[in-house]
Amino acid sequence: MEAMSLLGILGLCSLRDVKYKSLQTGILLLCASIGIWLHLYFARLPLMDMIGGMAVGVVLYLCAHFSGEKIGKGDALLVMVCGIFLGLWETLLLLWLSLLLASIFGICVMKLKGRGRGVEMPFVPFLLLGYVLCLYAWGGRIG
Length: 143
Hints:
Blueprint: H1 2-20, H2 25-42, H3 47-66, H4 73-86, H5 88-113, H6 124-137
Helix pairs in contact: 1-6, 2-4, 3-4, 3-5, 4-5, 5-6
């Protein structure tokens, strides 16, 4: 249930990120509320693990703030939502894999299209792809 919920959240947010290059804070807060409710109902993760997963998003949010939003604050809030669903270590794994995929894609775009480093690209589709790869690798369950 939680895996499919997060997959749906990432899918919808990916579409919005590609189309509008922004994420709505209200939707992310609703998703966080759903994640917390599911956590309290199913109690799959220890509370400290969920808080640790959210902390990954908090650190990313601070990086976004102090870097002049080189990475979007909405992306950081979405990572925080992922942290609620996945916990600390799985969120770190998802973030690492997503950054790796985005880097590979960015290098390919730079080489093939001759573009520089200043090109903006949406990050949420890489979170979605990373999550799908993790689900596939662990037989439909991560976390």
